[in-house]
Amino acid sequence: MCELTGLTACKTHSRRIFLQGIEKTKIVMDDPWMECMDHCIAVTKEAGKMIREALQKDISIMQKSSPVDLVTETDQKVETLIISSIKKKYPDHSFIGEESVAAGAPSILTDNPTWIIDPIDGTTNFVHRFPFVSVSVGFTVNKEIEFGVVYSCIEEKMYTARKGKGAFCNGLPIKVSGQEDITKSLVLTEMGFKSDAQNFRTMMTNMESILSIPVHGIRAPGSAAVNMCLVACGAADAYYHIGIHCWDMAGGAAIIREAGGVIMDITGGPFDLMSRRLITASSKAIAEHISQKIQLFPCGRDDTEN
Amino acid sequence: MAEWTECMNFGMAIAREASEVILEAFKAKKDVMLKSSPADLVTETDQRVEKMLISSIRARYPAHKFIGEESVAAGEKLELTEAPTWIIDPIDGTVNFVHRFPFVAISIAFAVNKQTEFGIVYSCVEDKMYWAQRGRGAFMNDVSLHASGQQDITKSLVVTEIGAERDDVALSTMTTNIMNLLKVPIQGIRAVGTAAVDMVLVATGGADAYYHIGMHCWDIAASALIVQESGGVVLDTDGTEFDMMSRKVIAASSMPVAKRIAQVVRAFPCARDDECPNGMDNDCHGISNGQCCQGI
Question: Which of A93, A100, A105, A161 would you call most buried, defined as having the most Cβ atoms within 10 angstroms of its Cβ?
């Protein structure tokens, strides 16, 4: 169809239509996943709007694995919106979605194009109307993250990154602070109750160890995906966490890397999307310093039974 | 009282002017000095903004008194009298400011006969003007604010500060308090790095409680009134009446939540803002030139 006249057989613009078709084919051939990313951004925007509308109303809450593991009807509705929209356009693609994974069941990442989705990252924040709530989507092919989209929807900040093409917030390029000196860094993490007393103690000791380096301070905004984006845009210098999930990390991982930051395992080894833990930082020096200070505790893996 | 409305409107106007200086500096590289510890930062912008605010107020209200964070750090006496007094933190969240972490606030409270008449907290990166006048409610820009009303501690989201204090006793007390609250259990702990903004989040209903030990009167005087006017409560961490000079506060959506937090948290020893504990050794007041603020 001619974009100018709307006619299906527009002789006046047929050459233009022909050239537009060539252009589109060229774009797809150069970057086959760009179209997926554009679709992702559009559906994530819609999801964010749904979340903002839900914030105007009463929110009824259900508990998942514990009194602090909350889910709402909005989490489920948003995930259904995203998955059904993507399935319609890409019926052969796979999904790992927080609300679709049954409690305790493993999430298996295959080589197939896979969308890894957290419909509301920061559900506790959402329930309380605390201002950091995001939709997070990471897209993998052959187990490599090709792009990430994180929409911090109360702030209306859309963070995006396509592998090899930089990271952006609302269309403007972002990059990490570049800070290399841990004593001048601002560090993000999250704290939650752990039923295992030893693990709980280790989590708090880790925080004390980081503070004692010393660092400038620790912040806890309450959404893993937003935390990763705060490091990506230079507002913080590091984020570490033991106990999150692949759907919390997949979108942010692309954004951090494309913003020039570093992402690694807590042990200092390569980042493992299914490991349920990470360090992201503005520089290798800071990431490694944090890795040396953190004691591990068991947190399971997303790709095994829990 | 209506007679202070003019002062309050003036306070908001100068807060907006001062925010332009802050936002300009926000984007630039900053030279940072340390005050009492590696976490207690000050910049030239803190000092410039405080001078700007005080000189504007003095020009308009020459008889009024001041308590300002950077003036006290420079050796001025910290004393709250019956006289109309402006209590100012030019940049609450200096660490955030240095890092461009987007919560930075100008905090201005005004007290007469030692009672807070109005409070202004301008979260300038977000362009959110939180304010309250005694007896007249609390607002963000022109939207009325209401605390969440949450009465059940197990459904509460609690905000605090992490890392403002660095000596061993303060640090271990801080982490013990967090652990004990998480065990209650509460729904979560958050920290955004400025006492003033942390507290107004309780007034908005976005959090159910805030507690902290070690901050100063200029950090909380304005936001304490904003919380009260939104229907929330403020107490000392030991459950007794709030005292802005005590350097301890619980702000909460309801008395049951506030009292429950008071049962759980423990304070570490901390000199009051209106006392000098040991003469020269006064790092609690953030003294940068080695002189005691009380002139001893």
Answer: A161
Tokens read off for B3: 């007679």
Q: Give the end-to-end CA distance of chain A in Å, rounded to a whole number.
A: 52
Q: Could you read off the pLDDT of A156-197 as tens digits, one per residue?
A: 999 999 999 999 999 999 999 999 999 999 999 999 988 899
Residues B128-149: tens digit of each pLDDT: 999 999 999 999 999 999 999 9
Tokens 């309450």 sit on residue: A222
Confidence at residue A152, expressed as pLDDT on a 0 to 100 scale: 97
Query: Chain A neighbours among B 156-215 (CB < 8 Å)?
Result: 157, 162-164, 166, 171-172, 175, 178-179, 182-183, 185, 187-193, 201, 204-208
Residues 6+ apart with CB under 8 A from A127: A59, A61, A70, A72, B187
- pLDDT score of A18: 64
Sign of CA dihedral B128, B134, B136, B137: positive
Give the count of beta carbons closer than 10 Å to the beta carbon of residue B45. 23
Structure tokens at B285: 């007041």
Q: Which residues pair with A137 in a beta bridge?
A: A117, A149
Q: In the structure encoding, which two tokens stand for residue A291, read together?
A: 């890795």
Chain A residue closest to B202 (CA)? A130
Please identify every residue of B annotated as catalytic: 69, 89, 91-92, 94, 219
Question: Mean per-residue pLDDT for A12-26?
Answer: 62
> Under an 8 A CB cutoff, do B204 and A186 touch?
no
B231 Cβ contact list (under 8 Å, min separation 6) = B146, B147, B149, B253
> What are residue B152's DSSP bridge partners?
none
Q: Specify whether the CB–CB gap between B93 and B26 falls below 8 A.
A: no
Instruction: Give the whole-angstrom CA distance, residue A163 versus residue A141.
Output: 12
Does A121 participate in catalysis according to the annotation? Answer: yes
Q: Is A130 close to B148, i.e. CB distance below 8 A?
A: no
Select the residue of A130, A211, A236 nearest B171 (Cβ to Cβ). Answer: A211
Residues forming beta bridges with residue B211, ordered by sequence position: B250
Place of tokens 């839900």: A54
What gap in Å lies between CA A72 and CA B81, rounded to an integer?
A: 51
| % of chain B at pLDDT higher than 70 | 88
